[in-house]
Design brief:
mainly beta; eight-stranded antiparallel barrel; 3 helices
């Protein structure tokens, strides 16, 4: 068998300093949202609620919305279809941050442009809650990188050949791949919350939990010379664990910071407009999340309305 070296274009390096700068800019932008929420809280706190020991959470419902920064381990990606079957090894990837802007990040009509998180949960115990969430991450295969390839391509193209751990550059004519609309993780979580500080209207608690769910990405893949298939599709599953800190005001509104990490396996990714074409990959992921939310108790709220 013959092996063909396709290392014909230079690897495009992405400077670490640029990535760090974008991260710092993103975090600084989040501060504006936090300040806006803090300014609104004293007005919102005038709402009439029944008296309740708010250190006890049983029966509470919470909802939050926020934004994430994603990190991914290298991944082997296996592509199969009519007349090709090959694997790319240790493929690097990044998330895809949207430059912070109040008009974008706080606009309900542009919910999927930034990387976002939504969750609703119910406290069935004083400390334990179960929740459902939607993590809208974004995953982009780093263009221009050089990777190893094994397998065979026979489509009458420049890339035809038999490969055995040969090097190949991920040029636009060969592969551009991303889950940017997005790497959607629909998941259920079991969480525990422990308050460790309370002073007047302010309380601080730590939360931790585990979860599992399904991946429904919308994958944009330009593979060889085939047209893309960018439909939403249940492609696999994931597991995760998390830890976070919540700062609550008047036991109704909160700001929460958390780190989530886990494992994703997608054995059935749509790639082209042919039903025979598929990709599969698995990798570890990490998220840093900054969240804004509210807590309420339906029973206490109803009693307060009756007074």
């Amino acid at each position: 068998m013959r092996a063909i070296d396709r290392k014909s274009s230079p690897e495009r390096a992405i400077p670490n300093t640029l990535y760090i700068t974008k991260t710092i800019t993103y975090i600084c932008g989040m501060k504006r949202v936090i300040i806006l929420v803090l300014l609104c809280l004293p007005v919102l706190s005038n709402a009439q609620w029944a008296e309740k020991d708010r250190s006890q959470h049983k029966g509470d419902i919470y909802i939050y919305w926020g934004w994430n920064r994603g990190f991914y381990s290298n991944s082997d990606i296996h592509f199969t279809g009519d007349h090709y079957d090959f694997t790319l090894y240790d493929v690097q990837s990044t998330d895809d941050q949207t430059e912070f802007d109040i008009g974008t990040h706080m606009n309900p009509g542009k919910l999927t442009l930034p990387q976002t998180n939504f969750r609703i949960g119910y406290f069935f115990h004083e400390k334990w809650n179960i929740s459902f969430g939607f993590d809208h991450m974004k995953y982009v295969v780093t263009p221009g990188q050089t990777v190893d390839i094994s397998g065979e391509i026979d489509i009458r193209s420049y890339y035809d050949g038999v490969y055995d751990r040969d090097e190949i550059v991920l040029a636009p004519s060969f592969l551009q791949m991303e889950h940017t609309d997005g790497l959607n993780y629909l998941n259920f979580e079991l969480r525990r919350s422990d308050e460790f500080f309370r002073k007047s209207f302010l309380s601080v608690s730590v939360t931790e939990g585990i979860g599992a769910g399904a991946l429904m990405p919308r994958t944009d893949a330009d593979l060889l010379y085939f047209g893309r298939n960018d439909e939403y599709h249940f492609s696999g599953y994931g597991f995760n664990a998390l830890v976070g800190v919540q700062i609550s005001f008047w036991d109704m509104f909160f700001i929460q910071s958390e780190f989530k990490g886990g494992y994703i396996n997608m054995p059935d990714i749509l790639t082209t407009n042919s039903d025979a074409d598929r990709a599969s990959q698995d990798f570890f992921f990490g998220q840093y999340n900054l969240l804004i939310g509210g807590t309420f108790n339906l029973g206490s709220w109803g009693k307060g309305k009756e007074k």
